[in-house]
Design a protein that fits this description.
- The chain has 302 residues and is an alpha/beta fold.
- The chain has one domain: Alpha/Beta hydrolase fold, catalytic domain (Rossmann fold).
- 43% of the residues lie in helices and 16% in strands.
- The protein is built from twelve helices and eight strands.
- It has helices spanning 51-54, 85-98, 111-122, 138-147, 153-158, 164-170, 173-184, 195-205, 208-235, 257-265, 284-287, 289-301, and strands at 10-16, 19-26, 33-37, 59-63, 104-109, 127-133, 243-248, 274-278.
- Helix 1 (51-54) links the parallel strand 3 (33-37) and strand 4.
- It starts with 9 loop residues before the first strand and ends with a helix.
- One of its GO terms (molecular function) is hydrolase activity.
- Pfam families: Abhydrolase_1.
- Keywords: Hydrolase.
Length: 302
């Protein structure tokens, strides 16, 4: 790993019953613990522009989720439970416990945010502050896609039965994933991404087991993740606060904050949830790290 991506951070390989996980940790060991969870199609490297600053006040753990980066990428199962956000949340808990943290703050982007809110719903005593970056609830996302079949086509494509998407992506994985990055950035280029981070992303994209894992992630989104949301919604369950929802004005927040607030208020957001919008494409921590960091520092320190 390029040394300048995470200065003063240490590398950790953490063995759990569900496989080996990779994480980078920085900040004082007795500072409040904070785990940062990346999204698709990235790795822990997406945090390199804001993690060092957060480590001034927190013990920051940047984790590669299962199937991504350098963490284990086991095969899926017929029900796609292995890559459900419930199971991935349990794995985050196991990793954090092995690093000595039973209760912690969590900042998640994209798929990492879905792991984060599922973990917070399932085990509310684990999370003391929850920041969700540029997502709507999974159940809301699927309902929108049911109304608008052309919305978010990668969700349906990746959730197809194996090996259809794996085979198609495998023909040219790096161009496929790079095109997604371009489409989701604010300026339609890769300019926002540092060469070191892109190198790490490409390493992960080129591995067949990780291509399969990312598809399993989305198959779980169409199956057990959506089902878990539906159950909690029917039971009226809410996240415990404090909660921050931060969105990009050129992605989830492109229609403003009102639809975002309505989606979360109508599902899992507790009273007092904070909502913020920043000028950016989807990859807020890399495209606009200054604004993203400012919002996170205020929320985590309040």
């Amino acid at each position: 790993m390029p040394a300048d991506l995470f200065p003063a951070f240490t590398s950790h390989w953490i063995d759990t019953p569900d496989g080996r996980f990779f994480a980078r940790a920085g900040g004082a060991e007795d500072a409040p613990p904070l785990v940062l969870l990346h999204g698709f199609p990235q790795t822990h490297a997406c945090w390199h522009r804001i993690a060092p600053a957060l480590a001034r006040t927190h013990r920051v753990i940047c984790l590669d989720l299962k199937g991504y980066g350098w963490s284990a990428a086991p095969a899926g199962d017929p029900a796609h439970e292995a890559y459900s956000k419930r199971q991935m949340g349990r794995e985050v808990v196991a990793v954090m416990e092995r690093l000595g943290h039973v209760r912690f703050g969590l900042v998640g982007h994209d798929r990492g945010a879905r792991v984060g809110y599922r973990l917070a719903l399932d085990e509310p005593g684990r999370i003391d502050r929850l920041a969700l970056l540029d997502i709507l609830p999974t159940v809301s996302q699927w309902r929108k896609m049911d109304r608008e079949p052309g919305a978010y086509p990668h969700w349906r494509f990746l959730a197809q039965a194996a090996p259809t998407p794996e085979r198609e992506i495998g023909r040219a994985p790096i161009p496929y994933y790079e095109d997604l990055l371009r489409i989701w950035t604010g300026d339609g280029t890769l300019d926002a991404f540092s060469p070191g981070a892109l190198d790490l992303y490409r390493q992960s994209w080129n591995v067949p087991e990780r291509i399969h894992a990312s598809c399993e992630d989305y198959r779980a989104g169409a199956g057990p993740d959506r089902a878990a949301d539906e159950v909690d919604l029917a039971q009226g369950r809410r996240l415990a606060g404090p909660v921050l929802v931060l969105v990009a004005d050129r992605f989830v927040g492109r229609d403003g904050l009102d639809p975002v607030r309505q989606a979360w208020t109508g599902t899992f957001a507790p009273e007092g949830t904070e909502y913020e919008i920043v000028p950016s494409g989807h990859f807020v921590a890399e495209e606009n790290p200054q604004a993203t960091l400012a919002v996170l520092e205020r929320f985590l320190g309040s």
